[in-house]
Amino acid sequence: MTQLDTPIQASFIGLGAMGGPMAATLARSGHLAGAWNRSSGRAEAWGRTHGTRVFATLAEVACAAPVVFLCVSRDADVLELVGSLLPHLVPGQIVIDCSTTAPQTARTAALRLRSAGVAFLDCPVSGGTEGAAAGTLTLFVGGDPATVERVRPLLASLGSRITHLGPTGQGQAAKAVNQLMLAGINQAVSEALAFAVAEKLPLPELIDALSHGAAASWFLAHRGPRMAERHYPLGFKMALHAKDLRICRDMAAQHGVQLPLAEMTLHHYDRLPGCAEQDLAALFELKRALFEKKSTG
Prior knowledge:
Largest sheet: 5 strands, parallel
Number of domains: 2
Strand content: 5-15%
CATH topology of the largest domain: Rossmann fold
Distance between the termini: 72 Å
Order of helices and strands: EHEHHEHEHEEHEHHEHHHHHH
Helix content: 40-55%
CATH superfamily of the largest domain: NAD(P)-binding Rossmann-like Domain
Structural class: alpha/beta
Number of helices: 14
Radius of gyration: 20 Å
């Protein structure tokens, strides 16, 4: 393989539920220089599983490749990592943040990096842990179009649909729209399937029928069967979705508007015992309980 044929390399920070399989996908495609996680034990276990280099320090992360991916849980983590990486980055490098944050966090990170000649893309993703593992995520990208083209091979290894939506922060704005819509879909699917249980309909057959009609959706096809089984392997934590909905609420407040759907979903998540660590499809349990209380009341 000549130098021209060598795939562009990237370092990856954050090996959680989404970041771990995303980094593994980059490794399989030959794009991963190595990974880092705040919890070294998790990083070492991940490295052994995937036969991939694990970095000991953020300085190593910054120096190992021209591109650095971030995939962490909180806005504060993104800004802290950018601050820690900044002394070790050089002009021409690119930081791609796949976390879900407020648009202003993306703009702040981009401004700090620009002072050192480092480019930044906000690139939140959708598609769950299944899409992360399969490399079929949807990517919402904000930032300079030329930078997007430079890293397109990396993005293409992670997702089947890459949409550039405008300048820095617009990727995160698009993800906020996605998360608000997801709240409504979760509400509709969980409530409708609880209603179906009360009507004594066979859920597997019903879900299959619904998935071929006007009510079809990714969420119904992928999370409906879990509701039917009342088994919720973690795909996306309620706590993280709640965090995203609070971002939506803050964004809407800037327009002087409230989001009833977001408020209702946040209220429902809070009513579920231990909701923070549960997959958001467990909302079905709250909806099902509504019918059970009526039938025994």
